[in-house]
Amino acid sequence: MRQSWRLWTLQRSPYIPALSALLSRNYFHRIWVVQEVARAQKVHIMYGHVTIQWDILAQVVPSLLEPENMGHVRGQTRLGGPPSPSAFAEAHPFNYISWHLCSIASMDMIRRMYQDKEPLALYEVLTTLQLRFFLATDPRDILFGLLGLISDPELTGEPPNYAEPVEALYTRTARYFITQTKSLSVLQYAGTGYKRTLKDLPSWVPDWSQPSTAFSLPAFVLPARLVGTQDTPLYSCRSTNGNSGQDQNIIEVEVQQFDQVFLAAEPILPITTFEQPSYVAMGTGASGTQGSGFYIDILASFATWLTGAKSLAASFPPTQQRCKDIESTLFDLLTGGVYLSSLKAAMREAKAYQTFQIMLRSFEALLIGCHQDNSNPSYPAFERAVKTAALSSGIDLKDEGAITAFTADVGRLMYAMGASGGGKKFGLLKSGRVALVPPGARAGDDICYIKGAPVTFLSRNGPKGLELVGSCHAQGDDTRGNTGEWRTVYLA
To answer: How far apart are CA 373 and CA 370, in angstroms?
Structure first.
């Protein structure tokens, strides 16, 4: 009840539109701002004639990052806030408030660590602290803009060299991360199957010029027994012809094949539930104020992806034999990994699965109705589908309180699914397993383990060696015994 009242109050706050307008400024994505905020003794944000202390702003962000709250804040941005600058929108297609909030939270964490004189390694700043949400005019500045904060002596000893090609800088940095972490964990941020602007970059090197929102960050970490040991070197640098000369664009790794892609469906799952601009409110107050909100475009995208995945899985004989309950399999695939624990903390797993089933039936009814009427998805149609599907499960959504509570649960669930599987296609594997694969996946791509890397990968043969397509998640890839044969290959 307390949570519902807090949510009701936040949704009807007259200050939300102003706060949304402030947080939507592209200022919060500039890489050079990070060290300005971190190194300053005192930070004030000036917006017109108003000044606010950074620490106060940072205290507000964690509450707004909760999935049930963020939908309303995003909606206010689109309904009443100013349009985003077109230049920034073109450079950053996912220019939405959820990423601004994450940027502020990351900057505040780095600020506190820097002020407390805690050591900051560049790899940690770019990955764990999620500074890949940021942009720079010169792609070298994604790295150079952080040199004033980090404690890596190997990187801070020399001034930035803007004459060095971007590809060479990124490759050298990736090699440094491999040496520093004594693992191949940096590979999980790379791959040709995701959006890349640097065409000559090796497939195993991350394109740091692309913000993290260009692909979903890996959410499924393999058990230690499948990653390999550090008793022997995890990689070596050799040329593809085996000569003693080194090719800096190639690394030698050990891989173990797990499965192979049979089909990669075309729709791509949205990264979050807040990507699309068409916001609709579900439930209204007595004075016409908005209740919990969704984006009908994002719901339509989820509906197309989920119903298509269910249909494909149900029609593929190997999957029929392996997966007795297709809906349960999809639920486990989309809510597993590191996000399952947070989902369980907010909702019981049984309740989450029931909500998932209602969502899926609502989506199916919505798309069938639109097909019959030759119309586009609309909020009234979705509301009718939700109420009907909920009623069939014994949930009566006849009053506003019930609708608000249910939509908050749907928000949590969709956020978890978008965070885990967003930016990926649904894949059917030759064994009958189902998988989340990169947008650039093709039939025939191999799903494999790479010794020293914490996630599963998609790969394919290339002219100079094995091409890394990107991180993925396949049904059962975290439970299979490490009994296969490891083979040595070149990643190019």
So the answer is: 5
Q: How far apart are the first and last CA of the chain?
A: 55
Determine how β-strand 425-429 pairs with β-strand 434-437: antiparallel
Which stretches within 116-206 are classed as H helix?
122-126, 141-144, 153-156, 166-181
C-alpha to C-alpha distance for 244 and 265, rounded to whole angstroms: 43
What b-and-e string marks burial along 308-326, b requiring 16 or more CB atoms within 10 Å of the CB? Answer: ebbebbeebeebeebbeeb
- Could you tell me the pTM of the whole model? 0.81
pLDDT in tens, the chain (492 residues): 334 334 434 445 566 667 767 777 778 888 999 999 999 999 998 888 888 899 988 887 777 666 555 444 433 333 222 223 232 222 222 334 566 777 788 889 999 999 999 999 998 888 777 676 688 899 999 999 999 999 888 887 778 999 999 999 999 999 999 888 888 888 988 999 988 889 899 999 999 988 654 344 455 555 554 455 445 445 554 444 444 457 889 999 989 999 999 999 988 876 654 333 333 333 333 233 333 344 556 667 778 888 889 999 999 999 999 988 898 888 888 876 555 656 656 667 777 888 888 888 887 887 777 777 776 666 677 777 778 888 877 787 777 677 767 777 777 777 777 777 778 899 999 999 999 999 999 999 999 988 888 888 999 998 888 999 999 988 887 765 555 788 899 999
